[in-house]
Every structure is written in C-alpha cells, then in structure tokens.
Amino acid sequence: MKANYKSHGRKRRGQTIILFMFFMVVLVLFVGMGIDLGFAYITRARLSKAVDAACLTGIRTYRSNNEAGALALAQSAFQANYGTSSRDAVSPYPLNIAFDTSGPNVLLNVSATAQINTFFIRILPAVSPTTFGRFLKVSSSAQGTRPNLIMTMVLDKSGSMGTSVAAGGSNGGQYLPDAASNFITNFDDNLDKLGVVTFDSAQHDVVYTGGSGNHQPKRPFQADAVNAVNALVGHWSGATFSQGGLTNALVMENNASISAGETTVKVVVFFTDGIANTLQQSLACNGGAKLLNFGGFDPGDNCDDPCTWVAFMDPTTGDQLCSTSKGGTPSCCSGVNTFFSAIDNQSEIIIHDNVTRDAEYRAIQVANDMRSAHIVVYSIAVGGNLNLSFLAKVANDPSLAGTPDYTSTPYDGISVVANDPSQLSAVFQKVADTILARLTK
Question: If one looks up domain 148-278+321-438 in CATH, what number appears?
C-alpha cells in the first residue's frame, strides 16, 4: 500500500508540471499580446494624429491651381506628426492621399498603414513569423471636406480715409488697396465666391453677380475685386453709413446661390476707419414722406462741441442736399427736426450725438441678423477715431464675454484694429488666416 501511494504522488507531480508549463505558455501569450497590442494602440494613436494633420493641412492649403503643392504640404504634415519609432519595422506609408474634385466640394482622402515589430508574440513557436507574429499592421484614415466660402467685403470709403492723420483722418486710404488685394488672393477663385460693397454717405455694390434685386457674391472674383479696391484711391469722400454697407452685404449673402449638396461657410468682413455716424429714414418733409440719409462729421471734424451739426444726403448717391445744426429745421426737409429712434422707439432731436448713437445701434442689429442667418462677421478697423466697443459688438467678439452685450453663438467673429495704418496688411491677413482655419473645422 505504501509503495502505491508513492507512485500516485509521482504521477500528480508530473501532471502539475505539465499544467504549469501549459499555463505558462498561455500566460506568456496573453502578456505578449497585451504588450504588443498596447504598442499597436500607441502607434495607431500617433498614426491617426498624423493622418488628421495631413488632412487638415491639405484642405487648408488647397488651391485649384496648385493641387500638387497642397498634397506636398499634407505629406510633410503627416511625416512631421508621425515621426519615427524603434517599433516601426518600416517607415509608415500613405496608402492614399488624394483630392476628389468631382462633387460640389473638394474632398481630401488620406489613409496610412504602419507596420511595427512585435517583441513577445514572435517568440511563440506556434505563431508563424511570416504572418502574425513578426509584425503587426495598424491603419488609420480620414476624409476632409473643404466648404466653399461665400464672402462679402464691406469697405469704408468715407472722406477720412483720404485725409492725413494730422487733419483728423486715419490715412487708411494709403494702405487699404494693397491690404485688401492681398487678402483677396488668400481665397480660391474657382471654388469660393466674393462680393464687394463700399459705403460712405450711401452704400454701393461694386463687385457682384445677379441682376437688379438679386445681387450676390460672384465666382471667379479675384480680378474684379482687386480692380475695385484699387479704384478706390483718390475717391474718399462723404460720411460713414455703416448700417447701409452691412445691410447690402446681408442681402448679398442671403441671395447667394448654393448647389444641391454643397457645403458653404458664409462670411462678411466689415472694414472702417471711423464711427458709424449716418442713418437712413423716411422723414415727413413738407408734409410728405421723403427717404433721406442724415448724419455726418464726427466730433473734432470742424464740429461744434457738443456736436450738433448734421448733413442731409441723397440715399442713392450720397450727395449732400443741405445741413443743419443745434436741432434746427433743414432747408431740404422743412418742418422736421426729429427722427424715430430704433433704440427706444422714441422721437429724438436730429443732432449728431443722437444720430450717431442710433446709427451704431442699427449697424449692430444688422450684424445680429447676419449671425441669425448663419453668417460670420469680422470687423477690421484702422486709426484712432474709433469706438472699439461698437466694432466688437458688430463681430460679437468673444472678448465681450461676461458683459450684457455678449451671447455666444457658433458664428462669432473677431474684431481687430490697426492703430498704425501701415499695419493694415498684417491685420487683414490675420482675419484671412482665421477664415481659412474656419474652413477646416
């Protein structure tokens, strides 16, 4: 009996060793898979980051006349974000990086595969080194869509643009043509659409397509838009009817034709060198309704203090018809010395300060209407005779956060100022970069 017990014990010990070896193999397998698959997960995260960077760079830099350049930049962005690793068996390679221009929007497809060495799984004898054990492959892909831009530039051509700083003006007219022209070339002539509105004492559509009552941004636009801003030189005159310029831009943007399935981003770029000081209203002149623009010079521009002088102007041409001061009755609209305020629905005396306050309010309301129509507004200003709060409200700049004047929207723009007019090109380029970045969101 005793001998039999010993024999049975030896069998148990033999079985234990076999089971131990079996479980060790299983344990090594799972540890190896855990470590190697962990490396694969890390590699895939890096690969996804690199693919996304390539996609964003390619879309952001795409130009219909330089597709190869955008592809090269996308490839560089991929390499810069993936880098190299000792885990890589070979350098990662894009399987596909190509633009698709067959639809209403340009698409960029990027996919890539990385092949990494394994460190534990490969030692298992049951795993073939030529199939699974020696290398692991991980892949990632992304597709980017470039929305087509529909943009209207609203440019101030009032008299202060052409005067010297010493005379109270911004001297912005010296720098605006180059700044605006360079800005325009940031966008694709064959994909995007652009219109130009100018304003002084009245508003004027100068670059557009479509017939009467249906003005809208056009494509191609670069040549016409650059010619239009260059033609402004030497034609600075009149007051600052900001509301009119913004209203025309809103109409243009709303009129824009969009193809079925087309993705777009709508933008208005508002440029000024002064305070909004002019508004438009139908007044009961000589007992009959007459549409007039009225407002004019800002304090410091040969205006009494407090400023009460007001010019009355033709709403189509902007030509001055008459003027008044101290709330008097103008000769071209006798019997009238008040206007209806949009701020509080009350009658106000027609003097400069009241008109300016109402003109700013009305311009901001038009900008709010744009955001309600999914249009992003950017404001650009030059000089020192500015109401920075007004400009920020026009753009709904997030710098206003925490104030009663700000409610965040998906269509918030930014407000930027060039105190020195020679900085105007850099300020316009900052807005261009922001718009291009929005096209890749």
Answer: 3.40.50.410
In contact, 360 and 270? CB cutoff 8 Å: no
**pLDDT (0 to 100) of residue 132:** 46
Helix axes 352-372, 242-255, angle to 10 degrees: 20
Confidence grade of residue 128 (pLDDT, cut at 50, 70, 90): very low
Say if residue 42's pLDDT is above 80: no
- Residue 224, classified by CB atoms within 10 Å of its CB into exposed (0-12), middle (13-18) or buried (19+), is middle
Nearest of 146, 145, 153, 268 to residue 221 by alpha carbon: 153
The mean pLDDT value for 54-73 works out to 92
Q: Which of 432, 364, 433 is nearest to 194 (CA)?
A: 432
Q: Write down the domain spans for the chain.
A: 2-146, 148-278+321-438
Question: Strand 148-156 and strand 264-272: pairing?
Answer: parallel
- Let me know: does 188 contact 289? Beta carbons within 8 Å: no
Task: Name the residue among 116, 424, 148, 384 with its Cα closest to residue 273.
Answer: 384
**What is the mean pLDDT of the segment spanning 372-384?**
95
Tell me the C-alpha distance between 222 and 246, whole Å: 21
Q: What backbone phi and psi angles, to 5 degrees, belong to 57?
A: -65, -45
